[in-house]
Amino acid sequence: MSGVDVLVEQYRKLSAERRREIAARASPALRTRLAAVERELALRHSPGALAAVLTDGKEMQAPHLDLIDQVFQRIAAGESIRLLLTMPPRHGKSRRAARWAPLWYLAQRPDHRVMIASYSSDLADDHGRWIRDAITEWGEQFGLNLHPGSKAANRFDILSKEGGLFAAGVGGGLTGKGANLAVVDDPIKDDADAQSPTMRRRLWEWWQAVLLTRVEPGGSVIVIQTRWHEDDLAGRILAGETASDWTIIDLPAIADSEDDPLGRKIGEPLWPARYGRKALAAIRRAVGERVWWSLFQQKPRPVEGGVWQRAWIDKHRLTPVEFAAVELARVVVAVDPSGGDSTVNDETGIVGLGADYDEHLYVLADKSGTLGANDWGLTACRLALSLRADAIVVEANYGGNMAKSVVSQAWEQLARDGETRGELMPMIVEVNAKVGKRLRAEPVAQLYDQGRVHHVGHFTELEGQMVTWVAGMNSPDRMDAAVHGLTELAGSGQTDALGQGMDDGRLRGRR
């Protein structure tokens, strides 16, 4: 091996910054060798880099597509991953996750088998055909060739390797070899299928009995879809017993959370170079609110619309600066422990709320989460301390005296640790709901309609639960906690807004 060959081999192992320094000082002949190495390294680096090289930079690139690349890089490196990625239509998800990324993965793991499934066999075959044709055109550049006896669009094998690809539509059979990597892209065709309980049930049965049974031990599964319905495949995964096993990447068209996966500020578009604020606003007007919130914001709403209207929340929202001028008469922390009659009851709702002297109400904080009894007690008490709450309202229908005990014990623990700083424990108000969920929620929703409730900042999860809940659905814990707290705070002047049977003694102010 010549000295130049040794240099080139060492060059491959250096950092990108160091390689740039060497290339800048290299002779023209050596620079040509190094350029070939850089091309080879790029082809191996990531799906996006592979696409950029093979298309001379014409393939779409964006930060949200980089997230897809990163997951495939981890899987190729040997991790076993369950990924649920939800994002809006026309943002490049299928092209990256069901075409370029599987192509790149096969180049890294030619002995592995990849499965691609979509809502129809035609779409799945299209993905398979694209990958097959890409190997035919470019495969020699990254070491892949098709087996001459296995070149079908929906099933092909890699020459001299154990790997290959097979594709099928949702509901179809996946007989044959198992998959090291399964990619489910757009499992729902359209709104008609999404709204059909029968179609949703068939999809779930196929998912459980067919797709998951074909994944090899240690294999990975990627589900990438646009949300259509609260009970779609993504919704069932999120509500299922194995939800904690999944990595969740939720990418709405407009950022609506402070913990956005891309670090976007609230209100920033997902792909501003392609769909800016004005373009997305035009799309929202064209498709309507229900489609916008499901397909574009990944927060599906029931067809009938929620008891709350989002406009009631948005119109009367306050910034922290605006709220600074408000003098509160009362502050409570409301808790709805996980449990009860909900089928998705793994969260404890913990919401901080206040009331001013003019009978306006304020949502101040949402610390809800999946918490054990001791943890939710500590969280509620710490929130009460930070807000200087005068009461902790606890829903006690399913816990009896346990809920009150949890709060008392948590406060005692904080007192022993010195966190209470000598503050007296707030009054504990136990709520025993005597009427149905709709009769509890509707009077509070009326206060929103009247402009008497103000959210101080954005509470994405809580607000999403409010605007998507309709009678007959299981009421989520964040929303229940807010309803209990706002009902407690409502002054006697507002009791006329309540339905018959709602005045159970919790509406008497204690100024």
From TrEMBL:
Residues 492-511 are annotated as: Disordered. Pfam families: Terminase_6N (PF03237). It comes from the Bacteria. This is Uncharacterized protein.
